[in-house]
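Hey, I was hoping to borrow your eyes for a little while. I'm sending you its amino acid sequence along with the backbone structure tokens. Take your time with it, there's no hurry, and the full record follows here.
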Amino acid sequence: MSIFTVHLVKTDLATAFKAIWFPPKPEDGLIHAECMQCMTLGSPLFSTKRILLRQLVVFAQWQDESAIERFLKQHKVGKVLVDGWHIRMTFLRQWGSIDQFKIPNESNELDDPEAPVVAFTLARMKLFQVPRFVRWGRPVEKLVRDDPATTLALAATRLPRTVSTFSIWKTQKDMVKMVHGRSSVDLPRRHLNAMKERDRKDFHWQFTTLRFKPISEHGAWRGRKNFIPEK
């Protein structure tokens, strides 16, 4: 069974850009890795907080956990990531599709709606649809950012086409409520409305939403640990 990870680390500009331009190759147990720069959810489009150039985000799929350990000890990018934080996860469900990853065909379900869950979206943008995407996407960013049921929520990008979001939820039930417009925050239907607009006219040429079961986390991010809620 493959393992998925999300890595967060603050580094220097040269290291961040090198990882993005020359990402790790799929070898020695690494199936695929997406290297991006962190974004602040809901921030103004033209703001220094929008794209955080020194904050590297890596989303990766591995054959097993031993491949992760080898990478962190031996690979140049891994030796950078080991100084940050990462979460290890097993696959539950997918909506949509994306190239290069080997997503299982069969979905799994968490038996306990009170169990924590991780959501990750990854999209390849249609460049002429970026203005529409920003108009509908930023309200959703704020919705996820402000939901008290998230313990960590952020976005990431690799310009000009790749965008993603990442969030850890206290319970699967809370995440499902947000998706269906029933969360307790103001204007709860922002995500639902954006999905309807996407169905009307797609923003992307590829898009997937992935749901994961968190199994462990390692390191610290911005001085914090223990983002996976304890039941």
In short: Residues 130-146 form the longest helix (17 residues). The longest strand covers residues 204-219.
